[in-house]
Amino acid sequence: MTEVMERAKLSHAVVFRDAACYSAHPHMAVAADRTWLLVFTQAPRRPVVLHPPLDPDFRNMLLRSTDEGRTWQGPEPVPDADATGMECAGLTPLPDGRVILNQWQFDWIDPDGIDLSSAGPDVALPDWLARARAGSVDIGVLGTREDDADLFRLARCNGGCRISVAADGGAPFVPATSPPTAPYSGGYGMRGAVIAGNGDILLPLSDVPHYARIFILRSSDDGTTWGAPEHVCAKVDCEFEEPAPIRLPDG
């Protein structure tokens, strides 16, 4: 691997840094006009690291490069500054030059307004969020504090799958549709979609916030409308998340 990297004359550069923020989980795609698009998730830096399911202030930010990564413009929130509560995003360049941005957006509300007698299984109260973080397998890496509970002020509820579209690599992303994900609890994916041989767009997602099953959303009209979820995989005692699609040479 080292020899391959040396032959390719690879270089490394920091394209964005903000000491006041936690920026992570990038996904990059190249639009038909050759614009490089890099989307990543960002939230204010906390005393400990939190991920999108635990922090209502996460949004997705976009960087653009028109010179193959030598310089970058941005970042800018996508689709706009009001889009918060986001899971990580995925990008899909289309053959006609447009670019699709898919995101899952959690709803976050004041827990005092929740009727616990009728709250569904996808409602996570602040104390549950604190326990979930305390029991995380990566807690030793991300750090902990005795007063972690004070980080969680809102309750997390189910949200929606948000599809936004840009006319080309340099155009703004405009909210387009929110395809339903029922009977799955939600639809989250951070690696975009693939274009099948017949032109269908296949967008693989996992059932956020459970991250246990994988399904796809299919569009047969270039992303204008999306069909009902199609099951891909699930298995007892297994969890599946963050699917990455690959189109094979035979379509």
Structural overview:
It contains three helices and twelve strands. It has 251 residues and is mainly β. The chain has a domain at 16-187: 6 Propeller (Neuraminidase), CATH 2.120.10.10. The chain has a four-stranded antiparallel β-sheet with strand order 1-2-3-4, with no helix packed on it. A four-stranded antiparallel β-sheet has the order 5-6-7-8, with no helix packed on it.
Summarize the structure.
By secondary structure, the chain is mainly beta. The protein has helices spanning 2-8, 126-134, 139-142, and strands at residues 21-30, 36-44, 59-65, 73-78, 90-93, 99-109, 155-166, 174-177, 194-195, 201-206, 214-219, 230-233.
- Cα radius of gyration in angstroms: 19 Å
What's the number of helices?
3
Overall, the morphology is: globular
Overall SS class: mainly beta
Mean pLDDT: 88
The level 1 CATH classification of one domain is: Mainly Beta
Topology, number of strands: 12
Helix content: under 10%
| Major sheet size, sense and barrel closure | 4 strands, antiparallel
The CATH architecture of one domain comes to 6 Propeller
**Uncertain segments of ≥5 residues (pLDDT<50)?**
none
Share of β-strand residues: 25-35%
- How are helices and strands ordered from N to C? HEEEEEEHHEEEEEE
In the sheet with the most strands, the strands line up as 1-2-3-4
CATH topology of one domain: Neuraminidase
The first-to-last residue Cα distance is 29 Å
